[in-house]
Amino acid sequence: MKIVLIGYMGSGKTSVGKQLSTALNYKFIDLDAQIELSEGMSVSKIFSERGEIYFRRKENEIIKNLILSEENMVLATGGGTPCYGDITNFLASKGNVITIYLKTTLDILTNRLMLEKNKRPLISHLNNEVSLKDFVRKHLFERSYYYNQAQLGLDTDRISVEEIVETIVAKLF
Ligand code: ADP
Ligand code: S3P
After folding, report:
1. Which of 97, 141, 146, 161 has its CA 20 to 30 A from that of 75?
2. What is the distance in A from the centroid of ligand 1 to the CA of 11?
């Protein structure tokens, strides 16, 4: 079984994924970390040196290889992963994949991302809260079409990581 967490940057995919994998005794894989390992450089450096299209191509290849592997895993994707190429359809076509959308509202995403935007190349240039919020509002709206195709959607505002994990476990098993 592959439990694939999707959602906007800052929605908690990595934090929830780590704890969920411990709760289920599944392997945890962070897709960005796998891309960094495979390319030998940070996501920010891949964007600045090779460009976003190159990053999306690698992201597509690496997620497919992971999904086609035998192991049980919790996979934290990047915020853009399901929105490019054939990934959403690919995930939907696999019987051993459960996709979960971590839904987080604009205000909370903006607050979190304001503190952590430097390692995220798509937003690192936005240097005040108003411009970050305007960007996230539009971007989240454009991406919601893909996120909403997940098999399970969970509201995560004001819910702790532990509670989100408990909710997922209760819904899946
Ligand atoms: P993603 O992997 O989706 O980009 P992260 O797991 O890195 O998101 O979380 C972004 C930030 O938000 C981190 O500082 C994390 O501690 C915090 N965070 C994530 N989920 C929650 C939550 N449910 N409640 C409070 N803070 C959270
Ligand atoms: C991206 C999100 C990032 C990372 C890259 C692009 C996006 O992952 O994959 O910076 O397109 O939303 P996180 O969602 O873990 O920040």
Report:
1. 141
2. 6
Task: State whether the beta carbon of 121 lies less than 6 angstroms from ligand 2.
Answer: yes
Helices (H), the chain: 13-24, 31-39, 43-49, 52-68, 87-93, 106-115, 129-147, 161-172
Using DSSP's 3-state secondary structure scheme, residue 70 falls into coil
Closest protein CA for atom 16 of ligand 2: 9
Predicted TM-score of the model (pTM): 0.98
Q: How far is the CA of 120 from the centre of ligand 2 (A)?
A: 6
Pocket of ligand 2 contains residue 58 by CB under 6 Å: no
Identify the CATH number of the domain in which residue 51 sits: 3.40.50.300
Residue 87 lies in a domain: yes
pLDDT digits over 59-112, tens only?
999 999 999 999 999 999 999 999 999 999 999 999 999 999 999 999 999 999
